Amino acid sequence: MRAEVTPWQVPPRLLHLRNNELHLWRFKLASEKEPDTDCEIMLSTEELLRADRLLDQRKRNQFIRARAYLKSILGKYLHVKPDQVQFQYNAYGKPSLSERHQSSLIFNLSHSGDWGVLAVCGEMAVGVDVEKIDPEIRFSLLGENYFNEREKLLLKLYSTPRKRRGFYRLWTQKEALLKLLGTGFRINNQNDVKFLQYTSFPLTAAYICSVAFKGKISRIKKIHLPDIALFHQ
User: Fold this and answer.
1) Strands of 115-122's sheet, edge to edge?
2) Collapsed DSSP state (helix, strand, coil) of residue 158
3) CA 152, CA 176: separation in Å to the nearest integer?
4) Strand locations in the chain (E)
5) CA distance 207 to 104
């Protein structure tokens, strides 16, 4: 049975993650403020150093805001301030909550262009990917070079008017799977993909998002966070 997917809704006053429920947050990374000090104060020294290594100012600001939204949202679940949220990383760089939090919360973050998306669930592997649709990209060539035989066949099944969006649907599903596994750009064991489920949908008009999860999810609750400052009032 496919999971129920809710419409986008405002954040609830009290966050409660039910059994077999996945929360999917979306937020805007574009900001009028330069630099965004409200977000910078939520980051650790190491995170700010990572941001400073990004030479493109736009990408630097997007990294800072994405990280601030991540820590702000997770902090609400953990009942701690954003700057108190700590992470640990596996050998491939995939983050998870530090053991000091003693939490079973699982999350995955993705951002592209002006939008970010965060998937949060409990004790279940999850991966999420969002991509901005590029009307100029040579998607057929990319599919030929990077898709497996199953993905190539599925792409061919899309009608010509829908093929570009179909490519992004398959591409985000592939990326979400790899992020779920947390093993870089390879699948070590084909058994890892058994019982895997996907949900794909438009994040906004020009963005496609896919979520991959391994286990039983009965409900995906979509939450739109319009402003990080309002979230803390």
Assistant:
1) 4-5, 219-225, 21-28, 115-122, 105-112
2) coil
3) 17
4) 4-5, 21-28, 87-89, 95-97, 105-112, 115-122, 126-132, 196-204, 207-214, 219-225
5) 30
CA-CA distance, 108 to 25, in Å (whole number)? Answer: 11
Q: What is the per-residue pLDDT across 218-228, written as a single tens digit (0 to 9) for each? A: 999 999 998 88
Whether the CB-CB separation of 195 and 230 falls below 8 Å is answered with: no
As given in the structure block, the two tokens for residue 126 are 């999850």
Where is average pLDDT lowest: 46-55, 81-90, 157-166, 183-192?
Answer: 183-192
pLDDT category at 36 given cuts 50, 70, 90 is confident
Which residue type is seen at 18?
A: R
Return the amino acid letter for 91: A
**Mean pLDDT score, 13-34:** 86
